[in-house]
TrEMBL record:
<dbReference type="Pfam" id="PF13602">
    <property type="entry name" value="ADH_zinc_N_2"/>
</dbReference>
<protein>
    <submittedName>
        <fullName>Oxidoreductase</fullName>
    </submittedName>
</protein>
<keyword id="KW-0560">Oxidoreductase</keyword>
<feature type="domain" description="Enoyl reductase (ER)">
    <location>
        <begin position="14"/>
        <end position="311"/>
    </location>
</feature>
<dbReference type="InterPro" id="IPR011032">
    <property type="entry name" value="GroES-like_sf"/>
</dbReference>
<keyword id="KW-0521">NADP</keyword>
<dbReference type="InterPro" id="IPR020843">
    <property type="entry name" value="ER"/>
</dbReference>
<dbReference type="InterPro" id="IPR036291">
    <property type="entry name" value="NAD(P)-bd_dom_sf"/>
</dbReference>
<dbReference type="InterPro" id="IPR013154">
    <property type="entry name" value="ADH-like_N"/>
</dbReference>
<dbReference type="Pfam" id="PF08240">
    <property type="entry name" value="ADH_N"/>
</dbReference>
Length: 314
């Protein structure tokens, strides 16, 4: 019999208090699948949104979209990976676990430059950012306004836009400004008066031509539609319901949004390559033992975690 492992599930719809650790027998990999011994699992806002009241999920809800770990077993037909390979994977189902089984296509090798904890935070936020940068057509003559630039998605979007040669104006609280300057962005504090502060920065960097919203506040889209004339170059990853009314791009799942499946799948290996050569960094602001997933969710829900939160299995 296979070893029994732990996994975290939402036992009911609600807040972090519904999370439970249960024992499961890991599923053997089927054809084309890989079984991963999880060392670290990235925490993403989707994880706690997925079991919120009204989410429509049927408990128990398995959690965890992205992991970093070591290949433990491969199923028939898998030639690219062998036991012992260090990998990252997104999207997986039930990544908050000691062991997860997933199709080989969702894996990439862990970039050596990232340790296993950082690597667990590379893909979910990274592919969303890559989708936003691609969908809005960011190029080297653009000035890109990134809302929520202190978060996992926003920070990745800032770095990817800078890599494309764009100038970037990034909204974040003051504690993140030095970090964003190091990435090559012009930081601006969000909150009342944002439009005026961005206009002041426009005097130095040029007119904003693209906006990417990873914050979801009314202010983010209001500012974006005021500044950017071409609404097909404004994308939100959060305020999906409002996007249609405003005629801006809604990216992700739900409310008629563009899931960007092909772009995101292609981004997986591109992000790993950028992380491998040091062009893309992942910042981690907190780690928690797997059993303390609820504490990680409390912090993520507060909305100011900044760096990635990561669960550790050992
Ligand atoms: N549609 C999709 O496909 C998709 C994919 C991934 C994520 N998302 C969504 O994108 C959002 C961000 O995800 P994430 O992983 O980046 O979250 P995160 O890492 O938890 O980051 C959240 C950041 O948002 C910043 N923030 C909070 N209120 C803000 C405001 N009013 N204006 C500007 N920034 C603000 C905070 O920065 P400070 O520390 O500076 O306050 C915080 O660090 C979430 O709602 C998530 O569900 C959507």
């Amino acid at each position: 019999m296979a070893d029994v492992g732990r996994e975290v599930v939402a036992s009911a719809l609600g807040g972090p208090e519904v999370l439970r650790v249960r024992e499961v027998e890991p599923r053997a990999p089927g054809p084309g699948e890989v079984q991963i011994r999880v060392h670290a699992a990235g925490v993403n806002p989707w994880d706690w949104k997925s079991y919120a009241p009204g989410a429509g999920a049927r408990p128990p809800v398995r959690l965890g979209l992205e992991v970093a770990g070591v290949v433990q077993a491969v199923g028939p037909g898998v030639r690219w990976y062998s036991p012992g390979d260090e990998v990252v994977a997104w999207p997986v189902t039930g990544g908050y676990a000691d062991v997860v089984t997933a199709p080989h296509q969702v894996l990439v090798r862990r970039p050596e430059r990232l340790d296993v904890v950082q690597a667990a935070g590379l893909l979910a936020a990274g592919v969303a950012a890559a989708h936003a940068v691609e969908a809005t057509g960011v190029g080297d003559d653009d000035v890109v306004l990134v809302h929520g630039a202190a978060g996992g998605v926003g920070r990745a979007a800032v770095q990817l836009a800078v890599l494309r040669g764009a100038r970037v104006v990034a909204t974040a609280s003051g504690g993140w400004h030095d970090c964003l300057r190091r990435f090559g962005a012009e930081p601006v504090t969000y909150g009342p008066g944002l439009l005026d502060r961005v206009r002041e920065v426009e005097g130095r960097v040029g007119r904003v031509s693209v906006a990417i919203d990873a914050a979801g506040s009314p202010e983010a889209l209001d500012t974006s539609v005021t500044l950017v004339a071409d609404r097909s170059r404004i994308a939100t990853l959060v305020a999906l319901d409002r996007a249609a009314d405003l005629g801006v791009l809604a990216l992700g799942h739900g409310a008629g949004a563009d899931p960007g499946t092909d772009v995101r799948d292609a981004a997986r290996s591109q992000l790993a390559a950028l992380a491998a050569d040091g062009s893309l960094d992942v910042l981690v602001s907190g780690t928690y033992p797997l059993e303390e997933a609820a504490a990680a969710h409390v912090r993520s829900r507060e909305g100011h975690a900044g760096g990635k939160l990561v669960l550790l299995t050992r």
